[in-house]
Amino acid sequence: METVVSGIRPTGHLHLGNYFGALRNFTKMQHEHHCFFFIADYHSLTTHPTPEDLHGNIKNVLAEYLAAGIDPEKATLYIQSDVPETIELYLFFNMNAYIGELERCTSFKEKIRKQPANVNAGLLTYPTLMAADILIHRATKVPVGKDQEQHLEMTRTFGNRFNRMYGVDFFPEPQAFNFGEELVKVPGLNGSGKMGKSEGEGNAVFLADEPEVIRKKLMRAVTDSGPVEPHQVKPEAIENLFDLLKLVSKKDTLDYFEDQYNQCSIRYGDLKKQLAEDMILFTAPFRDRIKSLLSDDAYLKKVSSEGRDKARESAAKTIAEVRNIIGFKSF
Ligand code: ADP
Ligand code: TRP
User: Fold this and answer.
1) Is any ligand 2 atom within 6 A of the Cβ of residue 5?
2) Fewer C-beta within 10 Å: the chain N or C terminus?
3) Sequence spans of domains, the chain
C-alpha cells in the first residue's frame, strides 16, 4: 500500500478534463492505497489573490469531488488551509530552495508571461508549497496530469536535499502516477489544445453544467467545412470532437460518425448534437449529486472537519520529526 497525495486548485468548477485526467484516477486509487486528496486553496492565491468568493469556490469543489466519487470513508479529503503544518514545512523547504532553480521552473515562466503585473513570491515558491503538500504525508505516488511532471521533479529535489543536509533518510521520492494507463489529455471545444478553466469561455464542459448550457457549448464548438476526400486525415478540431466521443459515447455512435466522416457525408451539426446528449447523460449523475450535496451544509461540514483532523494527525507526525531532525527542541 502506497501513500498518495493530490490536489486541485479551487479556481473554478471541475470540468471533464479534471475528471478524466485526475479525479477518475483518485476514485480508483482510494480503494487500494492510503489517499489524501485536498483542495489547494493557498495555491489559488498565487493567481487569484482576491477571489470574489473563495469559500463558495471551495464549497463547490468539495461537492464536485464527492459527486465524482471520492469516498471520505476511504480517502482523506481536506482543505489545504485547514492544515497549517503544511505551511511550516513550506517554510523549511523555502530555506533550502534556490532562487535560480525556482526561476527556471516552466510553470513560473509561463505565469509571469500571463500575469506580468503580479509576479509575487508565492508564484516563485509554488513548487516548494507543492512539495510540502506531498511530503507532509511522505507520499510516494501523486496522480496528476502531464503538466505537473516538473513540479514532481522539484519535489524530489527538495526532499532529497533535506535528507542530505541533515544526514537522514526521511523523505521518500514521490512519482507522478496514472492508474495503469498513459497520461490522458482531454481536448477542449475551441479547436485546439486542452480543456481547461482558463482556456477561454465555452472551452470546458463542467460536471455541474445544466443540459441547456452543454447544448449551447457544443453548438459553438469549432469545426470546419468538412472532409472532401474519403478517409482524409482529421484536422485537430475534428479529432478533438472524436476524442470526446470516445470518452462519453457508445462505440456504435463513434463508429457511425467515423464512417460518415470517411464517406464525406458527415454533418457536424448531428455529431455535435449527439455529443451534447451523450455528455448530458454522462454528467447527469454528477449534476444531481452536486446539487444535493450543495444543499447539505451539515454533511460538507462533517466531511471537511473529519478530513482536516485526519490530515492534521498525519501532518503533525511529519512536522514533529522534521523539527527534531533540524534541531528545534523543547526545553
Ligand atoms: P485547469 O487546467 O482547468 O486550471 P488544474 O490546473 O486545476 O485545471 O488541474 C487539476 C488537475 O486536472 C491536474 O492534475 C491536471 O493535470 C488535470 N487536468 C486539467 N485539465 C486537464 C485536461 N484537459 N486533460 C487531462 N487532465 C487535465
Ligand atoms: N499544481 C497542481 C495543479 O495545478 C495542484 C496541486 C497543488 C497539487 N499541490 C499539489 C497536485 C500536490 C498534486 C499534489 O494541478
Assistant:
1) yes
2) C
3) 3-177+297-326, 197-291
Compute the distance from residue 8 Cα to the ligand 2 centre, in Å: 6
Annotation marks residue 194 as catalytic: yes
Could you say which of 28, 197, 234, 273 is catalytic? Answer: 197
User: Residue 131 C-alpha to ligand 2 middle, in angstroms?
Assistant: 9
Looking at the domain 3-177+297-326, which fold is it? Rossmann fold (3.40.50)
Confidence of residue 178 (pLDDT cuts 50, 70, 90): confident
Active site residue 197: yes
CATH superfamily of 197-291: Tyrosyl-Transfer RNA Synthetase (1.10.240.10)
Is 302 annotated in the active site?
no
197-291 matches 3-177+297-326 in CATH topology: no
CA–CA dist 74, 159 (Å, integer): 27
Cα-to-centroid distance, 31 and ligand 1 (Å): 22
Nearest 10 degrees: CA dihedral of 288, 294, 296, 299?
100
pLDDT (tens digit per residue) in 187-245: 999 998 899 988 888 999 999 999 999 999 999 999 999 999 999 999 999 999 999 99
The C-alpha angle with vertex 47 and arms to 44 and 51, in degrees rounded to 5, equals: 65
Q: What share of the chain is helix, strand, coil (3-state, %, to 5)?
A: 55, 10, 35
| Model pLDDT, residue 22 | 87
> Can you tell me the distance from the alpha carbon of 57 to that of 53, in angstroms, rounded to the nearest whole number?
6
